[in-house]
Amino acid sequence: MRRRLTRFLRKTKDYFTARRVLMILKLHQGLSRQQVARDLQCAVSTVVETAKRFQALGEGGLLDQRAGNGEIKADERFLAELRQVLLKVPTELGWQRPTWTRELLCLELKRRGFPRVAVCTMGRALSKLGARLGSPKPTVLCPWDSERRKRRVAALRRLAKNGTAAEPVFYEDEMDVHLNPKIGRDWMLPGHRRYVVTPGKNKKHFVAGALNAATRKLTWVEAPTKASDLFCKLVWKLAAEYRRARRIHLIVDNYIIHSSKKTRRFLEQFGGRVVLHFLPPYCPDDNRIERVWLDLHANVTRNHRCKSMEELMAHVVAFMRAYNRREKLNPSLRIAARVRDLRSVV
User: Fold this and answer.
1) CA nearest to 266, candidates 242, 231, 310
2) pLDDT surpasses 70 at 342
3) pTM of the predicted structure, to 2 decimals
4) Among 129, 141, 293, 334, which residue carries the largest CB count within 10 Å?
């Protein structure tokens, strides 16, 4: 029997069939089921089931038994229908649960006339489609009609594209920095969960930034409050930094500090040298500086371990300085040695 199984092992090209043959050979050598399971890195129950099938069916019991399962259930038509289902949310199709699970997808496909499949089969079908388990992005619909919004966004893009040294164009926005860290996904070992200690009582600090549409240079100021003074402070810094510019264009959102009475009175002293261009309401994706803030949160504030706002702001300032130097924006930013020096500046 051993010679026959050895020849069978040499001929087979299937990994799992070869492993089942090795199980029988090792059991024939006198090894225990536990020893075979450790050697082949499988469950003891797998060794027991393989031995039973060999006793009942001989060498045929070592072959893959799925050949007689019938037609494939998750075929191309099944995958096409699954793709259409994933374009909707469960509540649109009459389910109470607002998010899809593999179990719920199995039920929905069965309700549409397809055969019931196992959860693991649904997982493989999702993998074939390239589906991923992601986090939805919260958004607010713009109250403007589509054509009006598109015309406004196109006009602002032309303005940014045609910016010159005499009339630079900036994308402006404010960012909240929370001592209470933003929680984000991270790699962890099986059975190990990483904890982020929060300060209990949250503290906030605010940054106003302006991104030059042509040079991508970032100018920023910070303050403990998000008021008109923060925006005016940024405009004053831009006017001093670009003192040779005939006119400064700022593309801003509709936050109240950009159009408050205090801001309007402040801008009057420039005599039209600073011009504000307002984005359509609730269109943050059309403000390019939002991408800078997104990178900053990913590299600095998400899951941070800073114990004080001063320490956190030192990392924030280091990131923005590294951005202007166009250093590689890896998670460490190569600033660990510099943060200590920056704490005295912030």
Assistant:
1) 231
2) no
3) 0.70
4) 293
